[in-house]
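request received
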Amino acid sequence: MDLGTMTAQLERLRSDALDAVATAADPAALDAAQLAFLGRKGAITELLRGIGRLPAEDRPRMGAVGNEVREAVEAAVSERSRDLRGAALIARLAAEAVDVTTPGRRIARGTRHPIAETIAAIDEVFGRFGFVVYEGPEVEDDVTNFQMLNIPADHPARDLWDTLYVDIPDHLLRTHTSPGQIRVMRETRPPIRALLPGRCFRYEAVDASHGFEFFQVEGLMVDEGTSLADLKGLLEEFGHALFGVGRATRFRPGYYPFTEPSVAFDVGCVVCDGSGCPACGRTGWMTILGAGMVHPVVLRNGGIDPERYQGFAFGMGVERIAMLRHGVHDLRLFMENDLRFLEQFR
Ligand code: PHE
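response:
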């Protein structure tokens, strides 16, 4: 091969190589093009091996042109490589781009259930007077739920509590939180100031103001010289704390086998403010709890000497108080788990 032919071939290879490099679509294609022309068996490399067969005087010129072509192709490869990497980076940045103007997603916040919130409000008021929260079991025995509270088997007073029994003999779902009085008296010593919130159960037809499952908060105070006046003062404070300082309150005689005397505690109707409306049966009053002086028999059943100690107890229905606090007219709403209802009590 002579110098002219070789130069012509080299120039064609140069332009083929530059084409291949310029059109390589990705780093793999670029590597392949580089190998095809400049690799050990590449077309340019192979051609330049023929320099040795040229006449001696032509070799330096051919060598110089060969180097120039090789360098030109190498320069094109590195430039193309830089371009491809730049393009890949721009594509990745575009894919990962975050639109900082997109509005944030609202985080769903839970709310306290109105029954739990009401129990907490009740705890808070009595907590100021030194009452401490205890809890008793939901499955009680007949002795503690009734007999120790001065309600013998077959006593007509049992009709006040329609009872759900369980499969364990002499056990039932507690019909009220009052058995907690017995448990607290037996587990501690006077002076006692206990608050007993909890779920209770009765065999009842469900309607807007009755559930077969509901909450009560029981209170018990036992000390030397505890009197009905202490009970009245405490409950008046409670009524004012929950329903407003200006709220009228009154005590009426009541009956419970485990308190003597027994009272019902009323607050002025929160709907009509005492003038009389359908919500309060036109009486102007709403009964919020039952209470009384702990019967001496009950104190004795709790292991406490009624000659030395006196006590009072009260028990309130939480749903009823929550209804009055929040203007809810149907207690079934509290147990339906409808978020549209529950989320109102933030
Ligand atoms: N345990 C009574 C009830 O369920 C309420 C009560 C408690 C009354 C304590 C007097 C004293 O109706």
